[in-house]
C-alpha cells in the first residue's frame, strides 16, 4: 500500500504518516521539526549526537534531549512533570535510558509514536554499531512508528522491513532540487586535493571523509595543520589520537570553523550546517589506505550536500579508483553466513543442555566463531548486519575503475547533475600510505601510568574509571597484561605482544576465566596470509597442547582445524614444506579487560582526562618515566 507525504508551498513536510517507510527524497525539508511540533507524544531516534545538539539550539525547550550525562531520573522527572505532548529525542546508544525511565514511571512506551530519522543508517552502520539494530525490537512493538530518510530505499532495504506491516511512501525528487557534483577519478587523491585547495577560491573548505588517520595524514602532507579542524566523536580514543598529534582541541559539535574543516561520518547526515555564505564541499575517499572511506553516492554524497541549509558553491568528490577494490561475492557471503549460523544455533542449543562449566566452554567457542558478530542478543541472525555487509561490497566495487565510478553516479541521475573527470599523476611523493599513528605513550609511560593510579587494585573513584577506560582504548592488550600479570614479567618480556598475549590466556585459563584456551592460543600464534613450515606448526601446537593439558601429540595437519590452508607446499628458500594459512575459522574472543564502567558525569570525566593528559605530557617533555 502506498502512502503520500504532504508538503506546504515552501517545500516543508506538514505531516508524517504512521507505520510507513518514508523516502522524503531530499534533506532539509523539515521532517524532524514537523514531528516535534506534531500533536502527539513521540520519541525521535537520530543516528548521531550532533543532530540532537543542533536541534537543541534551534528548538530549545520544545523537546527533551537524551544524550551523554543525562540521567534516567531526569527523564522520569520530565515524563511526570510535562503537561501536553511529550517529545524525546535520542540516539540508539541512549535509548535504553528512555525505556528504563518509562518502566520506572509506569508509562507504556509503546503508546508513543516512534520516528527513526535517517533510517538508512540502520543498515549502513550495522557492522560497527550493535545498538542501532538492538533497539529495533522495541521500535517494532510501537503501535505507531515510521522510518524516514532522504536516501532512497533499495528493494532489498524495503524487503527487510516489509514483514513489519509498513506502507511505502515514495517521494519523487523535483528537478529543481537536483545537485551539481564534480567527481574526479584519480590514482593520487592527495595531489588532486592539493590542486583544488591551491586555487584558494573558498573562504572555508568542508572536507568529508570517514577516517581520522587519513585526515591527519592529509593535513600533514598538505602543511595545513594550523588552519585545520577535525570534527569527530568525543570518545577518549579519538581524544588521545588527536592530542598526541598536536590537536589539543577538537570538536564533536559543529562550529568554530577554520580554513580547512574535516568531518567524519557522524556528520554526514541529519544535522544542519547553517552559514551566511556558500562554501566549497569536498568528499574524499581513498580505498588504498582506508577501506571504510568508500562513499556511496546516494547514502553519503547526497546526504553530505544536504547538510548545508543555504547551499554550497560547489561539491567535488575526489576518489581513488584501483583494481584492488575487488568485492567479495555477495552470494558466497550470504551462503557462508547462513550455513555458519545454522551450525552456531545447533551448538548453542547443545550448550543449553550441559552443566554450567561445559556451558561456559560452549559459549567461549561460540564467541570465537566469525558468525558471532552477526547474531543479535536474542539469538536471531542480524539480517541488517548481513545486508550491510553485502551492500558494503557493492560500494567497494564502485571504485574498481573510472568507468564503474562514473556509472554509479549516472545511475543516480535523478539526484545529481554530474561532471566527471579523470586525473592521473606520475608523482608518488604525495600519495597516502597505510599507517597507524604512534601511541600517545610509549610502553614504559603506559605501565607507569597504570600503577601510578593503582589500577591493579580495586577501582573506587571516577578518576580511576576514566583513566582505566582511556588506557584500555589506548592499548587493550597492555591494560589486560597489567591486570593479570606481574609487573616484573611484563617489563622483562620487553613488552613483546605475542608473549604477553599467550601469558594472559594461560593466566585466564588458570583462574578459570576461560574454559577453551586452545583457540585463543592458536589465534595468537598463527596468522592469516602467512606461510609456516610443518616443523614450526608442529612445535607451536605441541607447546599449546601442553599448556592446556590436551594429552595428545600435535601434527602439522592439525592447523587445518583452525585455518583454511593451501595444499602442502614449499614455503621458504630452504625448500622446507609447510602451508600458507588462508582464512581463520575462528576469531579472537572480543572479551574486554574488566571492569566495565557505566556512563558518568561528563564534567568529572573531562576533568580527570585533562589531569591524565597533563601528567603524561609533562612526563614526555621531561623525558622521564615516573611521576
Describe this structure in words.
This protein has 627 residues and is of the alpha/beta class. It is built from 24 helices and 20 strands. Strands 5-6-4-7-8-3-9 form a 7-stranded parallel beta sheet, sandwiched between helices. Strands 12-13-11-14-15-10-16 form a 7-stranded parallel beta sheet, with helices on both faces. Helix 3 (72-81) packs across helix 4 (95-105), helix 21 (497-510) runs antiparallel to helix 22 and helix 22 (517-525) packs antiparallel against helix 23. The longest helix is centred in the middle third of the chain and has 22 residues, at 330-351. It is globular. Residues 591-602 and 623-627 have low confidence and may be disordered.
Summarize the structure.
With about 625 residues, the protein is α/β, with parallel strands linked by helices.
Amino acid at each position: 500500500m502506498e502512502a503520500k507525504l504532504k508538503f506546504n508551498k515552501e517545500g516543508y513536510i506538514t505531516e508524517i504518516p504512521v507505520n510507513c517507510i518514508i523516502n522524503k527524497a531530499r534533506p532539509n525539508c523539515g521532517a524532524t521539526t514537523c514531528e516535534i511540533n506534531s500533536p502527539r507524544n513521540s520519541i525521535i531516534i537520530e543516528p548521531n549526537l550532533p543532530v540532537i545538539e543542533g536541534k537543541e539550539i534551534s528548538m530549545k525547550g520544545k523537546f527533551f534531549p537524551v544524550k551523554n550525562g543525562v540521567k534516567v531520573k531526569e527523564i522520569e522527572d520530565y515524563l511526570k512533570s510535562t503537561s501536553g505532548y511529550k517529545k524525546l529525542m535520542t540516539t540508539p546508544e541512549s535509548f535504553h535510558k528512555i525505556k528504563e525511565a518509562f518502566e520506572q514511571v509506569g508509562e507504556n512506551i509503546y503508546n508513543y509514536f516512534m520516528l527513526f530519522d535517517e533510517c538508512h543508517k540502520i543498515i549502513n552502520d550495522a557492522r560497527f554499531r550493535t545498538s542501532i539494530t538492538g533497539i529495533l525490537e522495541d521500535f517494532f512493538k510501537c503501535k505507531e512508528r515510521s522510518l524516514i530518510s532522504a536516501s532512497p530505499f533499495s528493494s532489498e532495504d524495503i524487503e527487510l522491513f516489509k514483514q513489519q506491516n509498513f506502507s511505502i511512501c515514495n517521494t519523487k525528487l523535483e528537478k529543481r532540487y537536483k545537485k551539481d557534483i564534480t567527481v574526479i577519478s584519480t590514482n593520487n587523491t592527495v595531489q588532486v586535493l592539493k590542486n583544488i585547495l591551491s586555487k584558494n577560491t573558498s573562504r572555508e573548505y568542508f572536507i568529508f571523509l570517514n577516517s581520522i588517520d587519513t585526515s591527519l595524514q592529509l593535513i600533514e602532507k598538505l602543511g595545513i595543520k594550523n588552519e585545520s579542524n577535525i570534527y569527530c566523536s568525543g570518545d577518549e580514543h579519538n581524544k588521545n589520537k588527536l592530542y598526541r598529534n598536536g590537536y589539543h582541541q577538537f570538536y564533536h559539535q559543529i562550529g568554530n570553523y577554520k580554513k580547512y574543516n574535516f568531518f567524519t561520518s557522524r556528520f554526514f547526515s541529519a544535522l544542519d550546517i547553517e552559514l551566511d555564505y556558500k562554501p566549497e564541499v569536498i568528499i574524499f575517499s581513498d580505498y588504498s589506505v582506508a577501506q571504510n572511506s568508500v562513499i556511496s553516492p546516494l547514502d553519503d554524497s547526497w546526504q553530505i550536500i544536504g547538510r548545508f541549509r543555504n547551499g554550497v558553491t560547489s561539491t567535488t568528490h575526489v576518489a581513488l579508483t584501483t583494481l584492488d577494490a575487488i568485492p567479495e561475492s555477495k552470494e558466497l557471503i550470504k551462503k557462508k553466513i547462513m550455513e555458519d549460523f545454522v551450525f552456531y544455533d545447533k551448538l548453542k542449543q547443545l550448550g543449553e543442555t550441559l552443566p554450567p562449566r561445559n556451558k561456559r566452554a560452549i559459549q567461549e567457542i561460540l564467541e570465537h566463531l566469525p558468525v558471532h558478530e552477526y547474531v543479535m542478543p536474542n539469538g536471531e541472525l542480524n539480517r541488517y548486519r548481513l545486508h550491510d555487509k553485502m551492500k558494503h561490497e557493492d560500494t567497494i566495487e564502485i571504485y574498481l575503475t573510472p568507468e564503474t565510478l562514473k556509472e554509479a553516479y549516472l545511475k543516480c541521475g535523478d539526484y545529481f547533475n554530474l561532471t566527471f573527470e579523470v586525473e592521473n599523476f606520475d608523482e608518488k611523493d604525495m600519495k597516502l600510505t597505510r599507517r597507524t599513528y604512534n601511541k600517545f605513550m610509549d610502553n614504559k609511560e603506559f605501565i607507569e601510568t597504570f600503577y601510578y593510579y593503582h589500577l591493579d587494585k580495586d577501582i573506587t573513584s571516577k578518576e580511576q574509571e576514566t583513566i582505566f577506560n582511556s588506557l584500555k582504548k589506548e592499548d587493550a592488550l597492555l591494560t589486560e597484561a597489567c591486570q593479570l600479570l606481574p609487573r616484573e614479567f611484563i617489563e622483562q618480556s620487553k613488552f613483546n605482544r605475542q608473549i604477553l598475549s599467550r601469558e594472559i590466556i594461560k593466566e585466564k585459563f588458570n583462574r578459570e576465566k576461560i574454559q577453551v584456551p586452545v583457540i585463543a592460543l592458536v589465534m595468537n600464534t598463527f596468522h592469516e596470509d602467512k606461510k609456516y613450515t610443518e616443523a614450526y606448526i608442529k612445535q607451536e601446537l605441541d607447546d599449546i597442547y601442553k599448556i592446556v593439558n590436551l594429552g595428545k601429540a600435535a601434527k602439522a595437519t592439525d592447523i587445518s582445524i583452525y585455518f583454511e590452508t593451501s595444499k602442502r607446499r614449499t614455503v621458504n628458500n630452504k625448500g622446507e614444506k609447510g602451508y600458507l594459512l588462508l582464512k581463520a575459522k575462528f576469531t579472537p574472543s572480543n572479551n574486554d579487560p574488566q571492569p566495565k564502567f557505566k556512563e558518568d558525569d561528563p564534567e568529572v570525566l573531562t576533568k580527570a582526562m585533562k589531569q591524565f593528559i597533563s601528567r603524561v605530557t609533562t612526563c614526555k617533555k621531561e623525558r622521564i618515566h615516573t611521576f
